[in-house]
Amino acid sequence: MVNYMAIDCEMVETIGVRNSLARVSIVDHQSNVLLDEFVIPPGGYVVDYRTRYSGITKQIIDQKGQDMSVALERVKEVLKDAVVIGHTVNTDLDSLRECPCRAIVDISENSMLKLLYWRTVNTEDPDTDEEIIRRPRVSLKKLSTTLLDRNIQQGKKGHSSVEDAQATMDLFKVVSKLIRLKSSLKVNFRGQFGVF
């Protein structure tokens, strides 16, 4: 049985690292939180907490931050042999510096999800599927609002990596259902699906 897990990270900027890990969250296929850790950002002094986007403050890191090596050990333990789902997941994995997982699925690059989003937003869009697929990736916030009817990343306190990971997993499940439907109906639906 395949073990699917969604990940999202929040980053800050330090003197030495532009996207330095400050929080990592992992949820399982049912969106249960398996890991939610604040990390003392590597790279020296924090020059920008990006609080408006990351939700991270100096106080949070001072009170809850763990050493990067401790957090990475916990991530490795949770993700061992998992298929990791993310939205622009390479940014998250770069901040972790490694991924001890079986495979990676980036829903931001999923053609089926992109088509579903644009066809839902504008049912009379004259562009072909191929033209829509070539459009820039759609933000997690827009995908969640349109396809899950769920508002995320609201307010001025910043994003929640738990909330983002849960939305990512739920969007992955939408695509998985479409693939199963396509398979059972033998419908010709163009797109690239990653690892399923």
From TrEMBL:
GO cellular component term, pick one: nucleus
Superkingdom to which the source organism belongs: Eukaryota
Keyword Nuclease: yes
GO biological process annotation, one example: defense response to virus
Residue span, Exonuclease domain: 3-181
GO molecular function: exonuclease activity; nucleic acid binding
Keywords from the named record: Hydrolase, Nuclease
Protein name: Exonuclease domain-containing protein
Species per Swiss-Prot/TrEMBL record: Oikopleura dioica (Tunicate)
Lineage per the UniProt record: Eukaryota, Metazoa, Chordata, Tunicata, Appendicularia
